[in-house]
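Write out the 3D structure for:
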Amino acid sequence: MKIDIIDYESCSAAGVNLGALRTSLKQHKSGLIKNNLPGSDLDTWIGLVEQINGVDDLGQWQSRNNALAALGYEQGTIRHTVSALISKYGAARIGLVMGSSTSSIDRTEEAYTKLNSDNGLTEAFKQPFVHNPHAPALFAAHLSGIKGPSLTINTACSSSAKVFATGARWLETGIVDAVLVGGVDTLCLSVLHGFNSLQLLSPNPCKPFDQHRDGINLGEASGFAVLQRAGENDNGRGIALAGYGESSDAHHMSHPHPDGLGARLSMTQALKRAALSPESVDYINLHGTSSRANDLIEGKLISELFPASVRCSSTKAWMGHTLGAAGITEAIIAMDTLHTNVIPGSKNLETLDEALDFSIKATDEEKVCQHVMTNSFGFGGNNCTLLFSRAE
């Protein structure tokens, strides 16, 4: 069953909304800055969304993560689209799937620094719906008024790619008539210093797949999309979720499988579900974190599975690796090429890793694409590949 993408919106350091993101991509203007996160002196670059600081009226829901989700939800026409669907079908017939890696751990970190004299939570931090792995979906339901089934997926960096697959299955089985899918993750000390302990952070702006890449940059983002069964809404974007693939390596907590077995499986599953050949794909938005291991393994898989005619790029040099929000952020960039007819280049790429040989360039390419793919490969071997096509 084909699933239509009715609406989508993105919020990151590369642009507070989709229009700003398009401008940043076109101008090759990165949102990365030197790390200035309060409490951290790590020598690295981050993709900080400054506008979050203006969202301070969430009451019992207040957290940096929820603030970014709220900021993203108010961009574009997402709120209007969801409200119209609720009016048409009823709030109980709309599903909600959110992806996140850290949920609102930023708020929990802050709570621990402000414990009362009995080492208990002060009143301001008694927020059971915030100190909760399911917080993103709970808050999104509060924002939107959706009362149908809701779920938060926490599979590290593939979290908000998997929301599309889950939402599609709900639509295919008739559980709901529309699904709001989304992802949100924000920068916090646990994340920055956790990745630093893995020796993965770069002191320079990241350069995925480059011979001289030396690590990743972390960022924060939120994004939303609205899904319906094909043909049930005349106000769509002309884009369909044609296929998806999911897999688990079960190899290592933080290192990808050396042969990329799970990553290969997710890509081949997506192609099979979409009934497409590798040659049919026009563009692949790669996971491309700029780590030595990830880029090498993913790059070799691409050259094995796809012909040189398939153009590829990583877009993490614009906003950093946004972890649980990376899936939907990069899915939106990929599917939006079906609207803009421009394939973004791989920013900061100067010399392709000498061990790799596939079609990736730093420059943009104007092309009317029919089918585009995006990869999201998370810690623990949690992989997801999505395929989007022009709606028939």
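The chain has one domain: 3-390.
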